[in-house]
Amino acid sequence: MFVFKHGAYAPGHVLKYHPYKEVAFVGRSNVGKSSLINAVTGQKNLARISKTPGRTQQINYFLDEKQKLYLVDLPGYGFAKADKKMQGRWQYLMDAYFADNPALRKVFILIDARRGILDVDRMMIDYVQAYGHDCSLVLTKCDKKDTVKVEQAEFCTSVTKKTGIEQLKKTMSAL
To answer: Which residue, 62, 116, 157, 166, is the most exposed by fewest CB within 10 angstroms?
Structure first.
């Protein structure tokens, strides 16, 4: 069972050099990241869900002691309603997280299946890979009408239909 352990709101608060492995979830604002985290963990209210984009404003660490795994919820990117100063702080926070992080096993980059991969998503993929981290693309909202086919996606998930969730959980456990 995952429990909230730590929130990093500034670069100096990012957890480093602990005995657990990490997987991180990141995606555009309003991609369904909190809902997917709740579905993957099987816990309805672990990550807070909001209709307002950009509510995750810090790095949230959820720990499962049994699996020795941190699930890390990163701030969204894209159209979050935040001023430039706040967005600049998030950038420093993300740099601090990705730099020198040997515990990070995989970054799951979430893509809204209705939108497909946008330029801002490609920038995030390049950003994560520039730090030398492995990433996988996860389509969200695959049950919705008018979805776009994304060849590079390893997972196609729907929280409402519960599709792709078990596959994602198995991948996380195998890291």
So the answer is: 166
128 Cβ contact list (under 8 Å, min separation 6): 26, 98, 107, 109, 135
pLDDT in tens, 29-52: 889 999 999 999 999 999 887 655
**Rounded Cα distance, 147 and 150, in Å:** 9
Q: Taking a C-beta distance cutoff of 8 angstroms, is the pair 130, 107 a contact?
A: no
What 8-state DSSP symbol labels residue 64? E
The closest alpha carbon to 74, from 60, 88, 62, belongs to 60
Report which secondary-structure segment, H or E, holds 48.
none
The length of the chain in residues reads 175
Q: With b meaning 16 or more CB within 10 Å and e meaning fewer, what string describes 93-112?
A: bbebbbeebebbbbbbbbbb
